[in-house]
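User: Hey, quick favor. My workstation is busy. Could you predict this chain's structure for me?
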Amino acid sequence: MMNRLLPGILAMAVIVMASNILVQHPMGAYLTWGALSYPFAFLVTDLTNRIAGPAAARRVVLAGFVTGILCSLIGTQIVGEFGPLVTLRIALGSGLAFLSAQMLDVAIFDRLRRRRWWVAPFVSTLVSSTLDTLIFFTVAFSGFLVFLEPGNDVSWAAGPTPLLGFGPVLPFWVSLAAADWCVKIGLDAVALVPFRIIAGKLMARVA
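Assistant: No problem, here it is.
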């Protein structure tokens, strides 16, 4: 079993570590480069679920969760221009979002696994990515959760700005969340192609 899980565990660990590094580098006004790498964690989870089942997928998720915790611990010790690279709220938001969303992804995928090949990966990732975005940005930046880390000034994220530069006026962190969600959903659709190809090849080997 471990030999079958090892590729998924390694892929998940690489994606989580890469995303923790890339999130430190802005890409435009609302995104970081981590937004392009992190969504592929759902692809790894779905492939594992398709090939080895939900129990195996949950083990891969837990490996990614542990990797994320280690990355957060390291990030708290690295001080950048505005303080630690990873604050308590970011660490909490990241961990809760990853574990909750990925476990939901596993459950939805398993429920839909007998539908047409694209239904389970697309729907499970769509729903779980939405949950991931809601949890992370709310915990990390919303003003009403400031009590989680009173010493962390997130007032910059609460500033009223037009949503994504042209929509209704909302706290800036909502634009960050909306941009992140749009990328996740876009990559959800794009990832269907590699999912179809990789799952087909791996299922043929198992058979």
